[in-house]
Amino acid sequence: xxxxxxxxxxxIKTRGQQVTLRCSPKSGHDxxxxxxxxxxxxxxxxxxxxxxxxxxxxxFPDRFSGHQxxxxxSELNVNALLLGDSALYLCASSLIATNExxxxxxxxxxxxx
Amino acid sequence: xxxxxxxxxxxxxxxxxxxxxxxxxxxSNFYALHWYRWETAKSPEALFxxxxxxxxxxxxxxxxxxxxxxxxxxxxxxxxxxxDSATYLCALxxxxxxxxxxxxxxxxx
Lengths: 113, 109
What we know:
Chain A is mostly beta strands. Helices cover about 0% and strands about 50% of the residues of chain A. Helices cover about 0% and strands about 55% of the residues of chain B. Chain B contains no helices and 11 strands. In chain B, the strands form 2 sheets. In chain B, strands 2, 4, 5, 9, 10 and 11 form a 6-stranded mixed beta sheet that branches. In chain B, strand 4 and strand 5 (about 45-50) form a beta hairpin. The model of chain B has no long low-confidence stretch (mean pLDDT about 95).
C-alpha cells in the first residue's frame, strides 16, 4: 500500500516564475491538504481539496492555487514566485470530515532565487 | 483563529532520561488534538489523536494527555532513546489543522 507521494523532491526557481507541485494520496483517502513549512515554524495550512473542489483555504494569496483530479491526486501551483515562497511544501491525505490522523508525504523543497 | 504554542522550542537530553513537553492553546473550540513525530529526512508521522478532556494515550514509551479546560496537552517520553530524536508537532483540528511550531528533541547517547 503506497503512502503519500510527492514530486519533485527538490526544485529551484527564480523570482517571477511559476511552479507546480504534485501529490498522490494514500490509497483509500479522498482529501488532500497542502502545507507550507518555513524554517522554525510549524506547517501552515494552504488549502484542502475534496471532490475536486477547494473546501478550505488558509491565509495565502491567490498566487497559490490548486487542483484535485478524479483519482484524488492533487497539484499545488504557485505563480509569480517570491523569495519568501522558499519553503518545504507538504502534502497530507485523509478522509473528509473526520478527526483521523493525517498521512504526510516527504515534501517538496522549493528554493526561489 | 486558533493559535497553538509549543514549549520548549528545543531540548537535549541524555539517553535514558525521561522528558516531557507542552502544547498550549487558548480555546477548546476544536474537534481533536493531534501529536506528530517528524524525524529528519522523513515525513511527519501521527502519534496520537485525542478528542476529549482528560484523554490519555500511550504508545510504548510515549504517552500524552489532554486538558481542554486549561488549554494544554503534554507529551511524555520515558527513558529517551537516540531514535526518539525528532521534532514533535501538535496540531488542533477545527475547520482545518493548525500546527504549533514544534519541539525539537535531541537524545544524546
